[in-house]
Amino acid sequence: MILKTERLILRPWTESDAEECYRYAKDPRVGPIAGWPVHTDIENSRQIIREVLAVPETFAIVLKETGLPVGCVGLKLGESTELTEASDECELGYWLGVPYWGQGIMPEAAREMLRHAFEDCGMQKVWCAYYDGNERSKRVQEKCGFKYERTTDNVDVPLMHEKRRVHVNCLTRDAWAEKSAKRTED
Known about the structure:
Layout: E1 3-4, E2 8-11, H1 18-25, H2 31-34, H3 42-53, E3 58-63, E4 69-77, E5 89-96, H4 105-120, E6 125-131, H5 135-143, E7 147-157, E8 162-172, H6 173-185
Parallel strand pairs: 5-6
Antiparallel strand pairs: 1-2, 2-3, 3-4, 4-5, 6-8, 7-8
Helix pairs in contact: 1-3
């Protein structure tokens, strides 16, 4: 499946994306704040694409202008999320290469994933979380209409071998539909 927005193509990851994935995932400002270690080389990125990113509902964020991936956005459904056990709820996750921060790319990609979750996948609620201190992720969630649900301390971050405070937000189908209708009117 391929999804499109004004500036972006959201498409499945392929191993041939390893070089571009590494270009952004090696930056220590990207992965660690999201709960995963920096990529160590192109082969490490290729392995992560194969084992982690090349799964259903996970997409490379590709700029239409260049045809190259600059980040990732996806939905965790069913047992792949720890935020919900409901079959009609899922979790949104994302990351973006530093050179593209502050350009509205992540909210644009996230909004399309929310549309996909609610319209194509029939979800009733989408959850999203961020670790304490990740203000950029918090801001994306606010822009997309997520509402605060809870904060939990001492949450295990297995890939980083540490515990952190996590803030959990959610967006219902009805709230999303209302926000989308308002955006269309503007």
